[in-house]
Amino acid sequence: MSATVNSAATGRGQAWLVWALGAALFCYGFFHRNAPSVMIDPLMRDFMVGGALLGNLSAFYFYAYASLQIPVGLMVDRWGPRRMLTIGAALCASGSVLFALAETLPVAYAGRLLIGTGAAFSFVGTLKLATNWFPPERFAQLTGMTMMAGMIGGVGGQAPLAALVEVAGWREALLGAAAVGGLLAAATWLIVRDRPRPLPRGEGGADRDDGGRVKALLRGLAVVFRQPQNWIMSLIAASMTAPLLAFAGLWGVAWLMQTHGMERPEAAGTASLLLVGWAFGSPASGWLSDRTGLRRPVLQGGALLGLVSLSCLLYVPDLPALLRAALFLASGAGLSAMAVGFAVLRRCNAPEVTGAAYGLLNGACVGSGAVFQPLIGALLDRAWDGTLVEGARVYSPEAYQGALSVMIGFLALGLLMTLLIKERR
Known about the structure:
Blueprint: H1 2-34, H2 40-47, H3 51-67, H4 69-79, H5 81-101, H6 105-119, H7 122-133, H8 139-156, H9 159-168, H10 170-191, H11 210-225, H12 228-260, H13 264-292, H14 296-315, H15 321-335, H16 340-348, H17 354-383, E1 388-389, E2 392-393, H18 397-417
Antiparallel strand pairs: 1-2
């Protein structure tokens, strides 16, 4: 009896260690996503460019990450999360070195592209580990905890990194980050295993030839694409993620400064409350969903809370500062319920294609930022009245309200789409 209990405890400990290493890579990738935002001045000085060209540094990470999600899911299904997470960490570290040593902007772009490519493996690979190592009733909570790890990395890529850049310089800071990535790659390869017990040879395609592997990948992709719930859930998750990436991640600070007269530090702190709410709401919504065994009501409640909170922020004038901060927290906590969407996909997809399904949903989420960041900017330009301050365009509060309304409309559509989710026990 004692040996059995000790063995079970050891197995649980190993499962948590395996998951933690995957989540650490997701945290590391999120750190790199936000890193350029605290290096703008030295980067512009060293590369002798303006803001428009330098802004592409963020986009190279963003588009590489989003476009690779479905292929990454297929590769994780076929070759296992351990191998792909190790490769991802190594690519992130290599890209960080290339970026740190770059003397020209194209080389820096290539570094960011490598970082985004490596980070693309992190979330889907970690969810695959959670699928293989934990029972289904823990999955939604683990998804939320993984997202929380990402938010921690995002915060680390702002104020703490800014302090390090001030002391050591941006190149030295990125070389230090590269060393961390190398350690993550080594630890992942040495410690992580794809599942508690290896599959017998012949199961999972270990002895297939290359032609069989390609056919298996294409077959898995076809299965994922034919499942309507995958597309429905991807649209819902994208609608709930767009405010995080487009509002809190880009336009929220400028909106607070222009509409509510805040200084930049205060506006940044207020907008970051949405991320704080998301960080705590993700594991909480996952826990609630796993506890009740229900997915759709948790998603609906979260989407409704996010929609009401953001609508109050955007359309109710003269809110007290404390209430405005509470609404930012509430919107993040509500929208973070999209983490339950991955549990929905786990229930309606066979285990051998869950990686591809997760990739489809995660690609839709990241893609929402790629769509809505420039879309809101284009709508602001369209409503611009010609005002310039020190050469920069200044948009009126009315212009912001009109442009940001497209985000509210998309979220309302996502809430309606939750009616199409099928609960599976």
